[in-house]
Amino acid sequence: MPYLYQGENRMIKKIAAAVIGIVVAGGIVFAVESLGHAAYPLPPDLDMSDPVQFGNYVGSLPIGAFAFVGGTWVLGTLGGGLLACFIAGEKPRVYSAIVGGFILAATIANLTMIPHPLWFSISSLIAIAVMTYVTGSIASSFTTSGADD
Fold first, then answer.
1. Would you list the domain boundaries of the chain?
2. pLDDT digits (tens, 9 = 90+) for 56-93
């Protein structure tokens, strides 16, 4: 039986795998962070346009609030990365790196725009990089080529 995706259709599949993985990763981050905002709501009198006031608020948050945020980034990396690898069916480290790279870039933007404790910033970036690697390793077991070619 000939390979289902040949030529141009195969390229569309590869691009779709990456795009769908990124969109799903973003959706996971959004959905789980929404739960975090429900668990740790913003104070009604907080002026988010005042960087000093907002920085003081972030600095006063309990560790659970940071765990929620960091956990969403890791879950998004895992879920979106696995889906991208599954759709692509090959080169799992490449597709997990594409999704993980997107989450990493979005996280860096978030950490730059919103003040976070240094320990959280460092641990989040490390956790995303590690989950990107783990996702590629897990996906190697169900892709057609297994390990990267």
1. 7-139
2. 888 889 999 999 999 999 999 999 999 999 999 889 99
Q: Quick: pLDDT tens for 10-53.
A: 888 899 999 999 999 999 999 999 998 899 888 888 888 888 88
Residue 145's nearest CA partner among 101, 100, 94 is: 94
State pTM to two decimals: 0.85
Q: DSSP secondary structure string, the chain? A: ---SS-HHHHHHHHHHHHHHHHHHHHHHHHHHHHHHHHHSPPPTT--TT-HHHHHHHHHH--HHHHHHHHHHHHHHHHHHHHHHHHHH-S-HHHHHHHHHHHHHHHHHHHHHHS---HHHHHHHHHHHHHHHHHHHHHHTTTSTT-S--
- Rounded Cα gap, residues 18 and 85, in angstroms: 8
Compute the distance between CA of residue 72 and CA of residue 31 in angstroms, rounded to an integer.
9
Contact between 117 and 111 under an 8 Å Cβ cutoff? The reply is: no
Place of tokens 């993980």: 100
Nearest to 87 by CA among 132, 21, 134, 133: 21
